[in-house]
Amino acid sequence: MRTMPRVENKALRNYVYDQIRELIDQGILPVGKKIDKADLSTRFGVSQTPINDALNRLVGENYLEQKPRKGYYIREFNISEFCELFEMRAGLEGVAARLCCENATDEQLKTLVSAFDEFSLPMDDATLHHYYEMDRRFHADIVRFSGNNFILESLHTTGFQARTYQKGLVRGPDITLHEHRMVVEALKVRDGERAQQQMVWHLLGSRDVFKARLSQDVISSSK
Q1: Model pLDDT for residues 161-214, shown as the tens digit of each residue
Q2: What is the DSSP letter of 63?
Q3: Taking the domains of the chain in order of start, what are their residue ranges?
Q4: Rounded Cα gap, residues 74 and 33, in angstroms
Q5: 9-74 and 79-222: identical CATH topology
């Protein structure tokens, strides 16, 4: 069993909360899965009190839903909510991309610029999985390298980025690889306005996939 360091109760609750949320963000606890509190208690070497505190906090943040007499489940977002999540990401990450051009170090920009160098089309399953991981890292790094702690904290606290990966890649690399490289080209020359514009277009492109599904659902329900 994993042993826990001696920490104050508040720090312990925050630690357990962070660990459970990380399991959700990484998909280790998948959408729709019922939370096994006993398993989490054993995993972290703590009583169920901080587990319950963390789960209730995650319910309040819409990460989980609590079903009467059934327990806690990983919440799945509906199509309309995915549209809103991508719109929020477009706004925040667009500004973050612009700020990267102003604030990122040369070494940080080098990391971003080289992110997709190794990829080409078509991709086999193993390469596609690696591309998915690089997609997540690229977007997270842009926020981190922006130098704006409020944007970083906003995306971390609300989990906007992580939640939009619930369904994996919304669009395939046949479309998004080029879009990522358009963002990279703007970052390479520190063109903040173009970097922001390309990032907004990229994320709204994914939003539009859900908007199309939403429109189709409306049409289908009206028949």
Answers
A1: 666 666 667 899 999 999 999 999 999 999 999 999 999 999 999 999 988 887
A2: S
A3: 9-74, 79-222
A4: 6
A5: no
79-222 is classed CATH 3.90.550.10: no
Q: Which fold has domain 9-74?
A: Arc Repressor Mutant, subunit A (1.10.10)
pLDDT tens digits, residue range 119-176? 999 999 999 999 999 998 999 999 999 999 999 888 776 666 666 666 667 899 999 9
DSSP secondary-structure letter at 67?
E
- From CA 142, how far away is CA 112, in angstroms rounded? 8
Pairing between β-strand 71-74 and β-strand 64-67 as defined by DSSP bridges: antiparallel
- Give the C-alpha separation, 221 to 217, whole Å: 6
Among the listed residues 185, 203, 204, 207, the one whose alpha carbon sits nearest the alpha carbon of residue 195: 185
With contact defined as beta carbons under 8 Å apart, do 21 and 158 qualify? Answer: no
pTM over 0.85: no
Could you please report the per-residue DSSP string of 102-152?
A: HH--HHHHHHHHTTTTT--SS--HHHHHHHHHHHHHHHHHHHHHT--HHHH
The whole-angstrom separation of Cα 86 and Cα 91 is 9
Contact 87, 199 (CB under 8 A): no
8 Å CB contact between 130 and 173: no
